[in-house]
Prior knowledge:
Layout: E1 3-7, H1 13-23, E2 28-31, H2 36-39, H3 42-45, E3 55-58, E4 61-63, H4 66-77, H5 91-104, H6 106-118, H7 126-146, H8 159-173, H9 182-192, H10 195-202
Parallel strand pairs: 1-2
Antiparallel strand pairs: 1-3, 3-4
Helix pairs in contact: 1-4, 1-8, 1-10, 5-8, 6-7, 8-9
Bound molecules: glutathione.
The site of glutathione (GSH) has 11 residues, from helix 2 and helix 4.
Amino acid sequence: MTLRLIHFPQSRSLRVVWALEELGIGAEIETRNLDRRYLKSADYKSLNPLSKVPVFFDGDVRIIESTAIIEYIAKKYADGRLTRGAEDDDFGAYLQWLHFGEAGMGGYVNMLIAQTALLPEDQRIPAMKVWAVRETENCLSFVEESLVDNSYLLGEFSLADISLVYLLFLIKITRNGHMLGEKTNAYFKRATERQAWKTSCALAP
Ligand SMILES: N[C@@H](CCC(=O)N[C@@H](CS)C(=O)NCC(=O)O)C(=O)O
């Protein structure tokens, strides 16, 4: 097998690099600087027609959703390590958190980042910012209430943590970290002290 990942540091492809690292799976990782002109180029669109990151290949199989990629890798190449199956009591919790980290919360966080960091000030819409802050706070309260001290989402570390921690990282690097609660900050610290996270973050073009 030759697994191939196009990786842009600090983007959602970091989830994939982190999962590969945690699972000890080798892949060809092509690390590039996030350059929107390249994302829009015909070359890149032939890899990912949405012009988004990540894009992952396993032979003829192409996947463009970060949480789907990590689940695919773990199930197909790591005997399901860091995942749960239908036979497990916490299967429902696993699925919920794996998807909450992107599908449940990602849209609100994207809007928050657009309205507080990415867009030039004169293009921001105050009402959209209010909405994004309110919805992100709602999600973060749910996270804070759900976390247990000194633990991960399912007790042991899993892909669900990779999904959620990346989004917390995004909130922090865009200077919205003040929105995280005490338990959430401690959880983030715990997860990002893992060697696999540090190694993944060190990957540069
Ligand atoms: N749901 C997708 C989201 C992909 C996505 O939005 N990626 C961002 C980087 S974190 C991107 O490509 N941004 C570039 C742009 O929108 O121009 C996933 O989790 O893979």
